[in-house]
Fold:
Amino acid sequence: MSNVKHPDCPIRQLAQEAKRRMKLNDYVNYGALDKADAKSSLTPMETEVYKKMKDLLDRGVEVENPILQLSDKDYMKSLSPQDRQRYILEVSNAYLSLKNKMQTYLNEKA
Structure:
């Protein structure tokens, strides 16, 4: 199936970029945290999780259950079960993405 009507579709461009990364085995370093654009490479949810994680580490609290510790409990109480599950997945994805970016950054720095 080809996208004849919309050859410049942004989804098509993203798919082509993903395919290129997979062919070149370059997907491992995709989105690495650079010094120059550290702030711009984070999504809003990643920024929120980063601030909470930094606050926990500054206070000396060990992060044992990152999803529970990094989520906003008052906000979660106000959500429906479906929205609560979606929010937990967003926090989880942001945490894992941030963790991978920091791990990549630290490995490149060493």
Remarks:
- Residues 32-109 form one domain.
- The radius of gyration is 18 Å.
- The helical segments are 10-23, 44-58, 66-70, 73-77, 81-109.
- The chain has two domains: 1-30, 32-109.
